[in-house]
Input
Amino acid sequence: MKQPIRSFALGLLSAGILLLVMFYFTNDPKSKTENMSTDDMIKNVEAKGYHVLTESEYISVSVTSDENKKSTDDSSKTKEDQKGSGSDESQETETGENTKNEKNNSTSEKDNRTVTYTLTVESGMAPSTISGILADNDIIKDQDKFTQYMEEEGYTTKVQLGDFELTSKMSHYEIAEKLTN
Output
């Protein structure tokens, strides 16, 4: 019994010494990056096809991106307002009188009217998908806030399958309760 244990111990010792020698005498890729200057790192990253931004450049890009997103959302909403909606519940009758005033007050009318939508929840739908559908149909104003509310309050695992009639006057709590009961 002593001979196999001694052989095993000798093997471990040999392997340990071999790894130690390899560690000290090989080039470690981490040591290359530790000794690089910031300019060298930036050149290396850009050579691989990435872009490096300073903090102020990143902030300006994100602000510009948010402004572009808002302007495209606003332009798509005005196009939808001009075309009109396909559902009977959200269509408003137009008499031809004061057409200019109606266009100017479209945002206040949008806030004052109640939109009704029947949401069909199917198996495998993510909470963000549900929020997106509700935001697209003017039931909720902010998709991200509703998704965050569902996650924080623990509703995401309790959503039931089926059809749910929801209105734009419902709070996040009421919508979540309706979807989970």
Notes: Residues 34-70 form one domain. The first strand starts at residue 116 and ends at 121. The chain has nine helices and two strands. Strands lie at 116-121, 162-167.
